[in-house]
């Protein structure tokens, strides 16, 4: 398994863990959002290319939502630091998972479904 793929699944598991901690300390509904990085991490560990690509796509969609929130906000000055901070965090993670998918594909990992028996 490529090194970047190992880094990617570790980061996915850390993201899931942080979401679990957040759910237990704040709002339990956040627990639903732990499923996506958890599934991505498991899929990458199983050498499934589309687990990495899919999570990169999910993170990219979050970037698009940040841009939408920024464009729709009437008071940009109060939200701008949080939105910029989130974008600075999400953009490199998107690239990491994209490159993890490419490296898995380059070593001949399975391209099909993320989860299959």
Number of strands: 0
What general outline do the C-alpha atoms trace? globular
The topology string of helices and strands comes to: HHHH
Number of helices: 4
How many domains? The number is: 1
Report the β-strand fraction as a percent range.
under 5%
Residue share in helices?
A: over 70%
* Major β-sheet profile: none
Q: Indicate the structural class.
A: mainly alpha
- Rg of Cα set: 16 Å
Low-confidence stretches: none
Mean pLDDT: 87
Distance between the termini: 20 Å
Provide structural commentary.
- With 117 residues, this protein is mostly helical.
- The chain has one domain.
- Helices cover 76% and strands 0% of the residues.
- It is built from 4 helices and no strands.
- 23% of the residues are buried.
Summarize the structure in short.
By secondary structure, the chain is mostly helical.
Question: What's the structural blueprint in terms of helices and strands?
Answer:
Layout: H1 3-25, H2 35-45, H3 49-72, H4 76-106
Descriptors:
mainly alpha, about 75% helix
């Amino acid at each position: 398994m490529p090194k970047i793929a190992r880094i990617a699944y570790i980061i996915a598991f850390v993201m899931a863990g942080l979401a679990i901690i957040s759910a237990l300390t704040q709002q339990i509904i956040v627990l639903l959002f732990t499923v996506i990085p958890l599934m991505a991490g498991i899929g990458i560990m199983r050498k499934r290319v589309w687990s990495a690509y899919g999570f990169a796509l999910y993170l990219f969609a979050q970037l698009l939502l940040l841009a939408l929130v920024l464009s729709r906000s009437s008071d940009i000055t109060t939200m701008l630091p949080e939105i910029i901070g989130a974008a600075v965090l999400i953009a490199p993670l998107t690239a990491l998972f994209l490159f993890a998918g490419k490296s898995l594909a380059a070593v001949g990992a399975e391209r099909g479904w993320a989860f299959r028996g």
